[in-house]
Amino acid sequence: MNTYEGTLVVIPTRNRADLAANAIRSVLAQSAAAVAGVVVSDNSTDPAESSRLAAFCEAAGDARLRYVRPPQPLLMAAHWDWAASRALELCDASHVSFLTDRIIFRDGALAELASVSSLYPDKIVSYMHDKVADDRAPVRLQQSPWSGKLYEIASARLLYAVSQSRLHEALPRMLNCHVPRAWLVALRARYGNFFASTAPDFSFCFRALASEESVLFLDEALLCHYALSRSNGMSIVRGEVSRDNADLMAVVKSGGDFFAAPIPGIVTVHNVIVHEYGVARDETGGEKFAPLDEEKYLQTIAAELADITNPEARRAVEAQLRARGWVAPTAPPDLPLWRKLLSPSRVRGKLARALRGADGAAAAASPDEPAPPIFESVEDALDYARTSRGERVEQCPWAEYLEMKEVAWRSAPPGGALAVGTS
């Protein structure tokens, strides 16, 4: 059994010096006892961005902070893999977390993860995030309802949910989890790398679920993400090519496709996720991977159509869906299920309506549901998000569907054995 001996935070970034600086600040503001090291891996192609970020790291004057650059710019998965390898060389912490440059930690987040991993040092621990919807004015903060409870979830159950196109933030995507160093080393020994394929977060997720019988999920938002206009995912949804999603679009333009998805030529977030599901199923042997429900898959892709602002891209997706047998519904489609993963939902004793974040507006709320907090600036929203929480609820609304088992946390004795109880 391992023991918890500090957290190494890896921050991969590319041409986003200002955003990376915010991520770094959020780590250095955490409990000193929890942060063993911070490795910023700069994959920038713009020399000015690299110069600004390197200068910021030097000016920080913190011995725990290391700035590194790969020998040449890399595609995203290759960069994440290089960054993880370099970080493990530079710091011997027992646990590792990735923090992408559009995300910050809430105050006290790493101290909470240290508490959980001190009790269960061999387990991967995932957690939720809040979102600052800053792509339209006014700026809104969408906060996840939370119970603060710690759950164990069988990997097979999470994989089954993905096969049904039902996604939840409990999925361990490295950018939302605390991972034992020894587990990462074993992962590399098995596959030859930490991250692969097109989307490194979901590549890691499905490899982790294939390898582990279960993961722990802390039902609380420890992160907040923002800068939606710089989001790879949102630019993909809109059918746009930006400098931030250039890696993915280069694969498509070069004749590549998402070959492991039922419809390889569709470029949407859900199709990327399904592709990674198929890649991991094939490379791991697929014993835990349930067959994909194609009808639900088509419905979920169709639900993304409303967000594709590029008319040509939308028509192309519609044509491929119809060729597969999809018939357009007479009523407007539901919010895409991948957005229920990436956007917090409001809860009143059950999984309630998800907040639609792409246009900065909340879905219609019942009279007793408070509207999301509104701010004049992104900075004000982030300052508030660091110290505030969403509505506290009795239990995670997905607890029954995902067959979550609550495990003891704050009152549990050390030792690593999972004990069913209350937190």
Structure in words:
The structure is a single chain. The protein is an alpha/beta fold. It contains 14 helices and 14 strands. The protein has helices spanning 17-28, 47-60, 76-90, 109-119, 155-163, 181-191, 200-211, 232-237, 246-253, 269-284, 294-303, 311-323, 337-342, 378-387, and strands at residues 7-13, 35-42, 65-68, 95-98, 103-105, 125-133, 139-142, 150-154, 177-180, 214-225, 345-347, 351-354, 374-375, 405-407. The strands form two sheets. Strands 1, 2, 3, 4, 5, 6, 7, 8, 9, 10, 13 and 14 form a twelve-stranded mixed β-sheet that branches. A two-stranded antiparallel sheet has the order 11-12. Helix 1 (17-28) packs parallel to helix 2 (47-60), helix 5 packs across helix 7 (200-211) and helix 7 runs parallel beside helix 10 (269-284).
- Structural class of the helices, strands and pairings? alpha/beta
Helix-strand sequence: EHEHEHEEHEEEHEHHEHHHHHHEEEHE
**Number of E-state strands:** 14
Cα shape? globular
Short description:
The protein has 423 residues and is an alpha/beta fold. Helices cover 36% and strands 17% of the residues.
Summarize the helices and strands and which ones pair or pack.
Layout: E1 7-13, H1 17-28, E2 35-42, H2 47-60, E3 65-68, H3 76-90, E4 95-98, E5 103-105, H4 109-119, E6 125-133, E7 139-142, E8 150-154, H5 155-163, E9 177-180, H6 181-191, H7 200-211, E10 214-225, H8 232-237, H9 246-253, H10 269-284, H11 294-303, H12 311-323, H13 337-342, E11 345-347, E12 351-354, E13 374-375, H14 378-387, E14 405-407
Parallel strand pairs: 1-2, 1-4, 2-3, 6-10
Antiparallel strand pairs: 4-9, 5-10, 6-7, 6-9, 7-13, 8-10, 8-14, 11-12
Helix pairs in contact: 1-2, 5-7, 7-10
